[in-house]
Write a structure and sequence with these properties.
heterodimer; A: 116 residues; mainly beta; 7-stranded mixed beta sheet; B: 113 residues; 6-stranded mixed beta sheet; 5-stranded antiparallel beta sheet; globular
Chain lengths: 116, 113
């Protein structure tokens, strides 16, 4: 089945540590996204990538980094510079081009990061 | 490119009730709107997708866009406990970020048996 796989599902981190969240898709989608979700805040865009080896900052990129070396993979690193990293992180993807499908994001199941 | 406003609720209704969920947006140029459903500790899943004005129906769900008042709505008929979730409205961005979605904060719905 095609979809987006995020791992790990739950992650605990000590303050000052970097952590990397994995996102893999087998949908052959060109664009990939990382959102952060906090209670009462909705989804906020961290980074997105529309093509391999290229990515753009979203609304809350500070303290995060990404890479896009392969079409299928878009890992997110939460660095120690992120002041409040405890949150639910969602990866998403969509195809490029025209048509209805290009407007719709498909999401992974999410990764919950807790900083101790 | 901001401003999709959504009442966070929570909204609690008895089973079988008609549910109305609403969002407002700021720019009448927006044309693509979506509703996502998110169960607790899961990723959002697409529920409905609409373009421009009018209604779209899918089973017990109806999505409505009123461009004159910049209002989008999701109606759920004969609501079921399995409809208990957070509902997120979203609009597509435009210009250089047209592929990005801008989300409302979500409305948490609880349907009581």
């Amino acid at each position: 089945d095609g979809g987006i796989t995020q791992s790990p599902k739950y992650l605990f981190r000590k303050e000052g540590q970097n952590v990397t969240l994995s996102c893999e898709q087998n949908l052959n989608h060109d664009a990939m996204y990382w959102y952060r979700q906090d209670p009462g805040q909705g989804l906020r865009l961290i980074y997105y990538s529309q093509i391999v080896n290229d990515f753009q900052k979203g609304d809350i990129a500070e303290g995060y980094s990404v890479s896009r070396e392969k079409k299928e993979s878009f890992p997110l690193t939460v660095t120690s510079a992120q002041k409040n990293p405890t949150a639910f992180y969602l990866c998403a993807s969509r195809p490029q081009g025209g048509g209805t499908g290009a407007n719709v994001l498909t999401f992974g199941a999410g990764s919950r990061l807790t900083v101790l | 490119q901001k401003e999709v406003e959504q009442d966070p609720g929570p909204l609690s209704v008895p089973e079988g009730a008609i549910v109305s969920l609403n969002c407002t947006y700021s720019n009448s140029a927006f044309q693509y709107f979506m509703w996502y459903r998110q169960y607790s500790r899961k990723g959002p899943e697409l529920l409905m997708y609409t373009y421009s004005s009018g209604n779209k129906e899918d089973g017990r769900f109806t999505a409505q866009v009123d461009k004159s008042s910049k209002y989008i709505s999701l109606f759920i008929r004969d609501s079921q406990p399995s409809d208990s979730a957070t509902y997120l409205c979203a609009r597509r961005g435009y210009g250089g970020s047209q592929g990005n979605l801008i989300f409302g904060k979500g409305t948490k719905l609880s349907v009581k048996p």
